[in-house]
Amino acid sequence: MTARDLTRKRLVLALALAVPAVFFAVVFATTGDRLVPITLAAATGRVTLVEERRQSLLFISVAATSLISAFFASSLIQRQLDANRRLVLCGYRAAELIAARLAVLLGIIATTALYTWLALGLFSSPRFPGGVLLGLTVGAFVYGCYGLLVGTLFRNKLESIFAIVVLVNIDAGWLQNPIYYQNAASKWLIEALPAHYPSQVAYLAAFTSDRVGALVAYGLAYGTALLLAAIALYVRRMRITR
Asked: What H or E segment, with its residue span, contains residue 47?
């Protein structure tokens, strides 16, 4: 039912498909091929020289993936909340309802990451494309789980949109940029944000030969913590007082 609802929103799907393409086109038109130094936190602060355009495209791809996944996840959990409570009254378990939404969410995560990765490939060629796809997938998972939490926490769409836009813009759309990171004063704050591990996975795969297994595990653990919080809150919201 939830998957069918999403496919019926053709304008929303079209906008979701357009976001990465528009972001990449703007970056491609406003950046050059000059080499810029970047500092990767996961590479023990090592400074790496990369092309400005390649770095910007990868940075914006993580931001686009995070934004799309969070919005879809929030809408997925927030829609028909009252109807779901009636289903619980009819005998359905809250666990069954959340499981159905999690299945749809996994499909959203995989589709968003794959589409953004394919679009990125039209503009840039990373060193290890599979690693970049993995980073985008982890980013979509983390922010998808954040979207679930936001959608469960807030009853109105406006609050959910505000919570998503603010964090995505500050985190994936600003502080995770390695050019900014190298001169940041409070690096611990940047490293504590949701997009840190996914961004580092994508950057290391694109520009170095470093291993990313531990970073992937940390990112999945971060997303799982958000997911468990969302599930606990959802079950509480579905609880019927008799």
From this structure: strand 47-51
How far is Cα 80 from Cα 227, in angstroms, rounded to an integer? Answer: 19
Reference 204, options 107, 116, 138; nearest CA is 138
- The residue range of the domain holding 71 is 2-238
- Rounded CA gap, 222 and 232, in Å? 16
Reported as a single tens digit per residue, the pLDDT across 132-162 is 999 999 999 999 999 999 998 988 888 999 9
Q: How many domains does the chain have?
A: 1
Q: How many other C-beta atoms are found inside a 10 Å radius of the C-beta of residue 122? A: 11
Whole-angstrom CA distances from 173 to 43, 65, 92, 211 are 21, 11, 40, 24
- For residue range 47-67, what is the model confidence (pLDDT) as tens digits? 788 999 999 999 999 999 999
Contact 178, 38 (CB under 8 A): yes
